[in-house]
Amino acid sequence: MKFGYYPGCAADGSGIEYHMSMERTAAILGFEMQELEDWNCCGATSGHNTDKLLSVALPARNLAIAERSGLNMVVAPCAACYSRHRYAEHTIQHDPEMRSKVEQVLELDLSGSTETLSILDVLVNKIGTEAIAAKVTNPLTTMKAACYYGCLLVRPVEHTGFDDPEDPQTMDKIMKALGADPIDWSHKTECCGAALVTSRPDVGMRMLYRVLKDAKESGAECIVTACPLCMLNLDMRQAAVEKQFGEKLALPVYYVTELLALACGDQPQQVGLEKHFVEAGTYLQTIEVRGAEARAAAERAAQEAAEKARAKAEAAAAARAAAAKAAAKKAEAADGQAGEAKKAGEGKPAAAADADQKKIDAFVTAFTKNPEKLAAKLVANEAQAGVLVSILDEKKRNKLASLMVKDMELAKKAAAAFVQQELKKQGECQD
Amino acid sequence: MENSVLLSPADNNQKVLIRKLEQEAGTSINLCYQCGKCTAGCPAAFAMDHPPRQVIRMLQLGLTEMALNSNSIWICASCETCSSRCPRGVDIASLMDTMRREALKRGLTDKKVAAFNKAFLANVKNFGRAFEAGLLLQYNLTTGQPFKDMELGLPMVQRGKASPLPHKIKGRQEMKKIFERVARFGGEE
Asked: Which of B24, B133, B179 sits opposite A13 (nearest CB)?
């Protein structure tokens, strides 16, 4: 898989570890990143604070470079760069007036076909967490990580849309794939203060403190980010926050790409871990020891459980065999009794029913062969017998035959009724 | 009557301005029913003289001067929480952005923020990239706080996190032209 790569201006400065670990991530997972040729700054906050057209035109130049290079997808690891490029894409696609102005400013036509992607979107939706998990050699078992998404990776939803704006999960999924335990916390999408920490420290430092404090109180032992400005604030200014609010936080902060590379076997210096302000190596060593212990304990527990399960299964099998034997014996005995009972109980009525049916059949045959003789037995005189014979059909023959077997009187009554019915019918016709 | 507000309809100039702000922000202030969800979720509301809901109310009432003079538009961190949570779909963050630009045109700006933005965009115009180290130094000097973030400067250099020289892109002429043409459309020079 091939992506365009937009490193952003922090890549050779404050966010150099992000750039280093991003390249390592691509190498480890086997996707290609082609840096956009002669890319320019997206204008960042200063751009959209100053002029709307400028704030679209600056990223649009990069989108045009991607288009020219035949790159449909561009990875922008910096959350702010990602946001500005998404905004430009959205404007070019949905605001024809603005698009025309941007095309005049850049003196070129834009097709709006390039899609800028965040690293979280790429890792989860293009590469997949199974593929990541398959590369892990040093799992981050027992790492209690607060996955921090901040603002611009998940908002505004119309421009981002790859995750939930209130409780995003993509980074949590990546961390799980690396073996870590992402914690639940309330500030995962709260603003870290962004540029306010520099321009208005009276406001920004409090915002930053709230994020750090919530992570700490929620049980996190480190914070994971996917934004160089969040990293700058959370990591480089953490000491100042501790000093101002009189609270020890000691939370190492990592880029998600750094942890990915480390979990896949990279050495800390390959991703620039020593460049962090809050010491980040010790916690990883702690995790290595604690994780190994936890994995060994889990293995022991699994073995014990398997042992127990096997013993239990064996006992259960033995019990089942014994029960089956007993049941078979019982069933044999029961079968014997039941067989006798059947012979004794059911034989009689069945034989009787057979005999009755034979008699009925005999009467039916007689009715067919010699109807006058039988009719005479059922009715009072010859005239009625004649009527009865004339109306006998199969149904009536069967009915009379079965009644004659059961009760002669009932048969006589039925025959009389048949005759009466017929006479009445004839009478009506005559009338 | 010192603290009362005249609820008379906005005059024509104000109406025109409000329409312009709405159009540029791509949203409508009349959708707002003042529930206050934007303010409740705003991580910077504690420092604002008029939190987001009140700024929107000012615009609804035609109090454009008051809104543009509010410190809220400069304290807003553009985190987009308000817009993503608004049950009426008002793009409050975009309005804040639009109001910042309008205030800037009128010279009603937070001087430090304006100084930073100007220095930043000058970098982009001249080099094509933002030059972090130079930018911070320039910002600190122009705002008269040369020792600001001293505790970060040296460690950043030691750790190789501060590029000592600006990276200049090849298309610098192109960048200059972009800024010039934007200015011709009535924007930043």
From this structure: B133
